[in-house]
């Protein structure tokens, strides 16, 4: 981009659009009053002393982001870099403007006049960077976490109650409901029958035999007609319980 005015004038007018009496009257005055002092402070802070050639000629590049970050801590340099960005100066324009103590221009002139190369020792003690992220992401053997999960298969038929268990429960309830009175009646009827007395079958016992035959629990041939069928042997004991009735 071709500019009608020198870069120093353009930058000064951008920094001081309405100069006050205490403001510098030109960019050169601003440089000597404000910028050079900040460069010296940064150089002394960074190198510690000016005993080495590198410290006397640090070669600060005003287009290099790390150098701009170092100098941007100072107020006048921060405003200067902001003006560079707002004016959209190119690196060539910045290099043509920044020709003072401590800049890259001063180092290059010293190297040309002395015929030597100023060694930049910044970062010499920093080793090559190694990316350890992949090593951390790679799991080591033995670090695996194993989770054992037991999966129970739910089947609908398990929710249905067992019919046999229900029948057993029902039979137990019926046995408890009949109790000893029926046993006593059956024992007395058996005793009278042995004495030759005609005894009518107990109605509760008759119902039980019918249910047992229907379930297939009693498999006996049809006996000849008699007033009362044989009494099961377990009923001869006074403490036994009779089978259930309907």
Automatic annotation (TrEMBL):
<protein>
    <submittedName>
        <fullName>Uncharacterized protein</fullName>
    </submittedName>
</protein>
<feature type="compositionally biased region" description="Basic and acidic residues">
    <location>
        <begin position="140"/>
        <end position="158"/>
    </location>
</feature>
<feature type="compositionally biased region" description="Acidic residues">
    <location>
        <begin position="159"/>
        <end position="174"/>
    </location>
</feature>
<feature type="region of interest" description="Disordered">
    <location>
        <begin position="212"/>
        <end position="246"/>
    </location>
</feature>
<feature type="compositionally biased region" description="Pro residues">
    <location>
        <begin position="221"/>
        <end position="232"/>
    </location>
</feature>
<feature type="region of interest" description="Disordered">
    <location>
        <begin position="125"/>
        <end position="174"/>
    </location>
</feature>
